[in-house]
Design goal:
By secondary structure, the chain is mainly alpha-helical. Helices cover about 75% and strands about 0% of the residues. It has one domain. It has three helices and no strands.
Length: about 90
């Protein structure tokens, strides 16, 4: 995630740690996942990817306008991280 100047709270850190643990768990259980679970992960992956791409475009435009973009940077990074973790789950 880019250094946006945003401070992560304990709750933010807990969510990231939980996503890391969940990723490891899903990768270990991948062969037991049903079609609906896989379909849900795939759909979620593409939804997050589209949101990240849209936010990245907004981030670029805000940067070009010289406006502060810490909040947008934060969410672009968060979506990118979530996208990466779901991709890891799907590669199991």
């Amino acid at each position: 995630m880019k250094n946006s100047g945003a401070v992560l709270t304990q709750e933010d850190i807990a969510v990231v740690e939980e996503l890391d643990v969940l990723t490891d768990y899903i990768r270990g259980q991948a062969s037991k996942m049903g079609a609906q679970e896989v379909r849900f992960l795939v759909d979620t992956y593409y939804e997050i990817q589209e949101r990240r791409k849209s936010s990245a475009n907004q981030e670029r435009a805000i940067g070009e306008a010289g406006e502060p973009s810490a909040l947008v940077n934060y969410f672009v990074g968060l979506d990118g991280y979530s996208e990466k973790k779901i991709r890891q789950m799907l590669q199991a």
